[in-house]
């Protein structure tokens, strides 16, 4: 969440494309950037009826960053059940892996999982609300970055 120019708190994921999906018999509100304009793609999910949204970056692990990344990311059908199941499962695995760890014990490797979708390799990176870089949480930092990419 962030505060807009009117000092109103807004959940940045409300500006993303969203739908309710079912993965492993659990319903989630799944959100994602519709069109990629950067070298990563933001997606989010939360269990339906729960307040906290989990924010992630999807980054290609192959090709040339400034040439291929947008093309690879925009070619993903984020509505495809195989895609969102892979993303949500990777996100859940990351969060379970750091659950209960002291902040000082969490490394950036703990916040990343490598996956494959459609024969392409990607990294899923968890924007943790607890881990801070230069005094700002990874989640707040990604929300700020996302604000500049989508119309709110």
Can you give me a brief rundown of this structure?
By secondary structure, the chain is α+β, with helices and mostly antiparallel strands. The protein has one domain.
Largest sheet: 6 strands, antiparallel
Q: Approximately what portion of the residues adopt beta-strand conformation? A: 25-35%
Low-confidence region ranges: 1-9
- What's the tally of helices? 3
Q: Strand pairing plus helix content: what structural class?
A: alpha+beta
Sheet with the most strands: spatial strand order: 3-4-5-6-8-7
Number of domains: 1
The rounded distance between the terminal residues' Cα atoms is 12 Å
**Helix fraction by DSSP (H/I, runs of at least 4):** 25-40%
Whole-number mean pLDDT: 89
Radius of gyration, CA atoms, in whole angstroms: 15 Å
Order of helices and strands: EEEEEEHHEEEEH
Number of strands: 10
Shape: globular
Main traits of this protein?
152 residues; alpha+beta; 6-stranded antiparallel β-sheet; two-stranded antiparallel sheet; 3 helices; disordered N terminus
Describe this structure as you would to a colleague.
The protein is of the alpha+beta class and 152 residues long. Helix content is 26%, strand content 32%. The strands form three sheets. It has a six-stranded antiparallel β-sheet, with helices on both faces. A two-stranded antiparallel ribbon has the order 1-2. It has one domain.
């Amino acid at each position: 969440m962030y505060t807009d120019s009117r000092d109103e708190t807004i959940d940045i994921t409300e500006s993303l494309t969203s739908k309710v999906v079912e993965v492993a018999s659990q319903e989630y509100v799944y959100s994602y950037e519709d069109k990629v304009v950067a070298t990563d793609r933001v997606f989010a999910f939360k269990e339906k009826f729960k307040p906290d949204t989990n924010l992630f970056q999807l980054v290609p692990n192959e090709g040339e960053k400034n040439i291929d990344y947008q093309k690879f990311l925009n070619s993903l059908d984020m509505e495809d059940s195989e895609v969102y199941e892979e993303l949500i499962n990777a996100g859940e695995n990351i969060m379970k892996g750091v659950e209960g760890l002291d902040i000082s014990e969490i490394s950036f490797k703990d916040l990343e999982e490598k996956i494959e979708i459609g024969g392409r390799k990607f990294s899923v990176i968890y924007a943790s609300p607890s881990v801070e870089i230069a005094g700002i949480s990874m989640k707040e930092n990604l929300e700020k970055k996302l604000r500049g990419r989508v119309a709110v």
